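anyone seen this seq b4? input:
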Amino acid sequence: MHDSTGSWELPEELKMLRETVRRFMEQEVKPIEDTLPHDAYTPEPAQLASLQKKARDLGLWCFETPAEHGGAGLNLLGQCVVAEETSKCRMGAYIAGCGAFGFDPPNVIWKGSEYQIREYGHRNVQSGDKAFVAISESSGGSDPARAIATRAERKGDRYILNGTKIWISGAGQANWGIAFAKTGEDRGRNAITSFIIRKDRPGIKLQPIPVIRSYFPYEVHLENYEAPMEDRLGEEGQGFALAEDWLVHGRVPYAAATIGIAQASLELAKDWARQRKTFGSHLADKQAIQWMIADSEVELRAARLLVYQAAWNADLGRDIKIDASVAKLYGTEVSGRVVDRCIQIFGGLGVAQEMPLERWYREMRIKRIGEGPSEVHRMVIARDALGSRRNQG
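predicted toks r here
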């Protein structure tokens, strides 16, 4: 008898969750998004409230937040399965499910004090509102530990923050966030401390940065911003130690979301190829189209398995720094290629705003930069591969 104990497949409960989320997206989210402008990034308030109530009633709320804090408490594999499905809407590249499932607070908040967890974490989960994380600066977003120039000087029972963060997603829509600043002279990670910052206090100014998507990131300028002691997250110098898991693990569902968009694009292209006739036959009968679809199918299967492998290893407690870089690099680059091919299959219709493809094309271009550009992840992977070979030889 064949022993299949070494085989792997998606757990049954995650298959059921995937189908539940998929139905919710098709039956509840898409009909509302279809009423909105092409580049909208949020439904009308009443529409959003209705979607969120329905999602809460189904237990589909704040997927990454631990269950003891009011969320769904999914492991990383579950988060990836859900991310692929909730991205399948026009605004899904950056606003999963049109916001129906709430926005998880930055998970580093759960490492904070009881006061911080209650006042920021729990309130955020209850409201479903967005919070932001401010790390990147003009001096270098891909190496933030050494590039951060924002400083926090302790003055009695508070810190005074001065500096500017850029490319901060969600800052315009959030009430609070977490900012990273230097509190020591060391040039490395041990000099970085994290602080909760609130937009209703003096000393903070936001400026949108227009980009090729409608959901703009922001410049967050801090000038003599006062953070009371209770808003310091962790001890001095622990900022990156607290956030390390979040920074690495976040790349995996990030890649999964791009795969979801690419898969949705491919489904549209396949349907179009089956029905569209040119020069006496369907597009689906033409070898050039078949090859584009075949290449897309193969690449998406490979990308999905790399994402699953990274998530699986994380859930087993393994170090996934390299796995996460592999998944992020391959997933985002494949997804960009697939969306591009699908536009080509549609021809002129592919770049018309009647279709979601041109919006996804713009947003997939950004995905190769966000969460670390492709070149940085290639460097991380190469260093590991070459180092391993040297160690073997």
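DSSP finds eleven helices and ten strands in the chain. The chain has a mean pLDDT of 93. kinda curious what u guys think
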